[in-house]
Design brief:
Layout (H helix, E strand, L loop, with lengths): L5 E6 L8 H14 L3 E6 L35 E5 H6 L11 E4 L5 E4 L1 E4 L1 H10 L2 E4 L1
Parallel strand pairs: 1-2, 1-7, 2-3, 3-6
Antiparallel strand pairs: 4-5
């Protein structure tokens, strides 16, 4: 049996104004549907992709942010947010959506998906991955 590769998806762009955020989310969900070992990371303006209460009515685009709540259903448990990116933008973990997954080994206990990491820890996570996609 082939060894499972670690796929790391790095999101750097704001959620709207370009196609990057939407494309990343689609690729991540497709990969997870095919049982890829997926890590999803948010740095720089990418942290805005996870903010709560996004309102896109003024820009005439569909708000796709509720789709992030489905990550746990696709067994995506590793969501990393860079602390320095949050701090530089005046955000905290409380400003982000509460993303969870259910642990079948613990009687379907709901667990947090988001882990806030330092810039150095993020670099180490990327370095350990087999494949890194940057959006």
């Amino acid at each position: 049996m082939a060894e499972t590769k670690q796929f790391f998806y790095l999101n750097r762009k704001a959620p709207y104004g370009t196609i990057y955020a939407w494309e990343s989310l689609e690729v991540v969900l497709i990969g997870a549907a095919f049982d890829q070992d997926v890590s999803l990371a948010f740095v720089e303006d990418g942290v805005y992709q996870l903010t709560k209460n996004q309102d896109t009515t003024g820009i005439g685009m569909k708000n796709f942010s509720p789709t992030y709540a489905a990550l746990g259903d696709y067994d995506i448990k590793k969501v990393y947010v860079e602390q320095e990116s949050l701090t530089e933008r005046g955000l905290t973990l409380d400003d982000l959506q509460h993303l969870t997954w259910e642990d079948e080994d613990e009687d379907w206990a709901e667990k947090d998906s988001i882990t806030v990491v330092s810039r150095a820890e993020m670099a180490a996570l990327m370095d350990a991955a087999d494949v890194v996609f940057s959006f």
